């Protein structure tokens, strides 16, 4: 069983299953389910050719579908550890590994700034965008910011993310929270599309 696990060894990253436990498979399942919901929303948009479909909506849902499929694969292959290992090797090669804490702090600060800026842009610069689209964008920005920041492997942040709240860790709660925002947005759109003909037949607008 140990040979099936994805781990970081002295020789580098070893491919395998990152988290064979219940929470690991639940998270991966949520990634793939969200990817399917996003693809289904994309399919629905393309099927309604008689409606004026904006290209940004097509790009949004196709991009989210691919993103969440890739994140699901990355989650269980632990590609994040591979990325972290490559960054550590690069730091050694460039000679600034001893100053990595300063670099990590700066990196996390920049990620926080980028996250706040992205949220502000989504809220203020897309006022006419569907609320469901904005929710999906906010969820995707939050989740990718969390994943990229986690890749920095900052000790104090890792300690915070691995705090236990009951049987769950802070990291798991935040990760599932980000996934849920996009899944709700995608599912909401699907239900809305199904409901439109019924509402129209009933005279509801």
What is the gist of this entry?
The chain has 205 residues and is mostly helical. The protein has 7 helices and 4 strands; from the N terminus they run ββααααααββα.
Strand content: under 5%
Helicity level: over 70%
* Overall shape: globular
Task: Specify Rg, calculated over alpha carbons.
Answer: 20 Å
Q: Numbering strands along the chain, what is their spatial order in the largest sheet?
A: 1-2
Number of helices: 7
Number of domains: 1
Q: What is the N-to-C order of secondary-structure elements (H for helix, E for strand)?
A: EEHHHHHHEEH
Mean pLDDT: 76
Main sheet makeup? 2 strands, antiparallel
- Residue runs with pLDDT of under 50 for 5 or more positions: 1-11, 191-205
Number of strands: 4
CA distance, first residue to last residue = 57 Å
- Helix/strand class: mainly alpha
Walk me through this protein's architecture.
With about 200 residues, the chain is mainly alpha-helical. The chain has one domain (about 1-200). About 75% of the residues lie in helices and about 5% in strands. It has helices at about 20-45, 55-75, 80-95, 100-125, 130-150, 155-160, 170-200, and strands at about 5-10, 10-15, 165, 170. The strands form two sheets. The chain has a two-stranded antiparallel sheet. A two-stranded antiparallel ribbon has the order 3-4. The longest helix has about 30 residues, at about 170-200. It is globular and about 55 Å long. The model is unreliable at about 1-10 and about 190-205 (pLDDT under 50).
Topology:
Layout: E1 7-9, E2 12-14, H1 22-47, H2 55-77, H3 79-94, H4 100-125, H5 131-151, H6 155-161, E3 164-165, E4 168-169, H7 170-201
Antiparallel strand pairs: 1-2, 3-4
């Amino acid at each position: 069983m140990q040979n099936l696990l994805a781990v970081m060894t002295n020789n580098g990253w070893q491919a395998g299953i990152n988290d064979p436990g219940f929470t690991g498979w639940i998270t991966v399942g949520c990634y793939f389910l969200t990817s399917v919901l996003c693809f289904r929303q994309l399919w629905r948009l393309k099927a309604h050719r008689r409606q004026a479909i904006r290209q940004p909506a097509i790009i949004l849902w196709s991009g989210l579908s691919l993103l969440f499929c890739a994140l699901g694969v990355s989650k269980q292959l632990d590609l994040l550890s591979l990325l972290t290992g490559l960054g550590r090797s690069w730091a050694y090669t460039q000679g600034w590994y001893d100053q990595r804490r300063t670099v990590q702090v700066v990196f996390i600060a920049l990620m926080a700034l980028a996250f706040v800026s992205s949220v502000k842009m989504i809220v203020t610069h897309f006022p006419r965008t569907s609320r469901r689209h904005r929710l999906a964008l906010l969820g995707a920005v939050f989740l990718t910011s969390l994943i990229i920041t986690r890749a920095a492997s900052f000790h104090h942040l890792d300690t915070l993310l691995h705090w236990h709240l009951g049987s769950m860790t802070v990291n798991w709660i935040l990760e599932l929270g980000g996934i849920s925002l996009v899944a709700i947005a995608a599912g909401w759109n699907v239900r809305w599309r199904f409901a439109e003909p019924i509402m129209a037949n009933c005279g509801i607008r």
